[in-house]
Amino acid sequence: xxxxxxxxPDERYGRCESCAxxxxxxxxxxxxxxxxxxxxxxxxxxxxxRALRQKWREPIAAYxxxxxxxxxxxxxxxxxxxxxxxxxxxRVAPDLATRADEAMAALRAASERTEAAW
Length: 118
Ligand SMILES: [Zn+2]
Prior knowledge:
alpha+beta, single chain, 30% strand, 118 residues, binds zinc ion
């Protein structure tokens, strides 16, 4: 996740020892243009909209830094890096680097949703 080595065998996220010790978990979301080529919206994610809202709505709203671009992310992917109850960082795929504000707006809108599934 921090892409450091060594990884721990059988670790779900392939985390290094430091990440595992700090309880660092990354959740990925996939964005896509809204209806009629509208602004980006979250289409899928490793957390349900409801879980995202319950735990991360406020930290996402308070997150002011521009998201970093990371090449390990696939097309239209966004990653929320958390450490226990803290939101550490938000990263986006290179293709979203020039649309970072739009990606953040999509994430904020997603964190207001209350559905159980995307
Ligand atoms: Zn690490």
